[in-house]
Amino acid sequence: MSTPFYVSPQQAMADRAEYARKGIARGRSVVVLQYTDGVVFVAENPSRALHKVSEIYDRIAFAAVGKYNEFENLRIGGVRYADLRGYTYDREDVTARGLANVYAQTLGTIFSSAAEKPYEVELIVAEVGRNPEDDQIYRLPHDGSIVDEHGSVAVGGNADQISSYLDQRHRDGMTLAEALGLAVDSLSRDNNGGERTLTAEQLEVAVLDRTRPQQRKFKRVLGRQLTRLLEETGTAGGGKGTAGATDGDEAGEGTEAE
After folding, report:
1. Residue 49: which residues within 8 A CB-CB, separation 6 or more?
2. Cα separation, 127 vs 141, whole angstroms
3. Which end of the chain is more exposed for a tag (fewer CB within 10 A), N or C?
4. Tell me: the pLDDT tens digits for 221-253?
5. How far apart are CA 158 and CA 160, in angstroms?
6. CA distance linking residue 153 with residue 133, whole number of Å
7. 42: Cα separation from own chain's centroid
8. How distant is the alpha carbon of residue 27 from its chain centre?
9. Which positions ≥6 away from 9 have C-beta within 8 Å?
10. What is the phi-psi region of residue 245: left when phi exceeds 0, alpha when psi lies from -120 to 50, beta otherwise?
11. DSSP string over 11-59
12. How many Cα atoms are found within 13 Å in the side-chain-facing hemisphere of 72?
């Protein structure tokens, strides 16, 4: 009788983490920045049908990278949780912290289960407060841990380099145009230190705007408004090197839709 092949629990977890990280690294990055009137989400995403950034509830939004079908399932689950909690208790009881805890439990359970592969996703959950100091941003890696972020955060294939760039340049009190310009500059840098042009058609931009009179603070920045903001910052068109994606073929890899 043959001896069963043994893998230590530590090695098994390391292998699962490496598998998830490789899947996430194939995805184009998402950047989230605080600015004076709220929180801005900027993703490199040419698709207008398959979103990386979405509204969850009145003051809460969600951003993700990785496998689209996996983070879309998580988004739908988050919307259902928020709707049920808001209906059962009060709309004020729906918070980014509570939603992040739910996502952490789900991702942690899947990651530690030997019966299925880990999710190849990394999430950001953000809530805009009545004042800048009340804003909340949480990053959730594939293993279900929660990281409380402040100011700026990036997830995706080039996240470490982008985060370093943002940490050096982000400041409190930035306008929307300034925050958007910084986000696009960070996304346009490739692994080799070069730069490329990102146009409005290649970007998905949304904000949680605390100044909106509506109860729902989420708004997508599209069309002429996005083009105008990019022109204000000088990031629309020339002066950024040659255009061209550096990521792998995500649709071919089954990660994100192009």
Report:
1. 257
2. 18
3. N
4. 998 999 999 888 776 543 343 333 333 333 333
5. 6
6. 16
7. 8
8. 11
9. none
10. beta
11. HHHHHHHHHHHHHHHTSPPEEEEEETTEEEEEEE---SSS-SEEEEETT
12. 9
